[in-house]
Design brief:
Order of helices and strands: EEEHHHHHEHEHEHEEEHEEHEEEEEH
Oligomer: single chain
CATH class of the largest domain: Alpha Beta
CATH architecture of the largest domain: 3-Layer(aba) Sandwich
Distance between the termini: 35 Å
Number of helices: 11
Bound molecules: 5-S-methyl-1-O-phosphono-5-thio-D-ribulose
Number of strands: 16
CATH topology of the largest domain: Rossmann fold
Radius of gyration: 20 Å
Strand content: 15-25%
Shape: globular
Amino acid sequence: MRPLRWCDGALELLDQRRLPATEVWLRCTELEDVARAIETMAVRGAPAIGIAAAFGFYLGCRKLGAAATAEASRAAVAARLAATRPTAYNLFWALARMEAVARQCSGLRPDAFLERLCQEAQAIADADVAANRAIGRHGQTVVPDGARVLTHCNAGALATGGYGTALGVLRAAREAGKRLGVLACETRPLLQGARLTAWELGREGMEVTLITDGMAGHFMARGEVDLVLVGADRIAANGDVANKIGTYSLAVLARAHGVPFYVAAPCSTVDLTVPDGAGIVIEERDPDEVLCCGGVRIAPPGATAANPAFDVTPHRYLTGIITDRGLLEPPFSPGLARLVGGG
Ligand code: MRU
């Protein structure tokens, strides 16, 4: 299952705001369509945001026409997309890759230049699916047969080009014939676990037990969680991980109960320019997302709310990071530098 597709000159997105009730595809023909889809989370999940941004870059350049071969004209296109969501590193990684190709090809005729950009966006999408399958393979050593795995948010096919990171590891385990039990946190405020992870795994016949975010410690204390497996929005050079709000609490609980805690992410999520988690910008979203649930206001009039969309899990809580280039164990800095920076 792929949540993004390129079809007849437009980017089509499976609208994740409408799932699981309705499967509607949004058609984006302009830069602004893509930027709004990212901001409003019609498309979400770090790798999927990166892929959408790559196509958005192409669509913005297509509108510019011949002017797109000039770097100054393209800057506004990239700036609009970069302003959509600040935490997912794949967004910035994909924009940098598109700009690098644009520079290399700026001598081509406008038609050929644009064609090359469109090909690059498609290559980013295809490479992400391949990366997820590699993550799935590398993750098999940490998932024993019969494991009961707790996951948070949605780090599945919906959050990527397809197949998924954390859920990709579970898919690969299932393909290898392992039996699994999956506990999925509902993931307030936007319920990616309840709406998306339960939908995505359920339609493949995988057994998922949904729990509220506050139940995780209870199940760990009862010995009913063998490992925690989550995705990442940005990984700093020292291995600190920004991921969906609530991930940090799960990591602390896992440590307290001796449960292994793994992060699964492609190398395109690793930002070696940020030394540690303190340098990662955390997106603040509309307080109404907390004050309401499923579109219904649940807080009294006048109540206020905070809404950080992500938190940072310090690297000391991680048992390992499963990447498309291999499984890393502590200390993470040298491994990340080697896998991502070639150092
Ligand atoms: O706000 P979202 O839904 O975009 O947040 C998504 C997550 O936090 C995912 O865990 C992360 O992007 C990894 S997706 C493979």
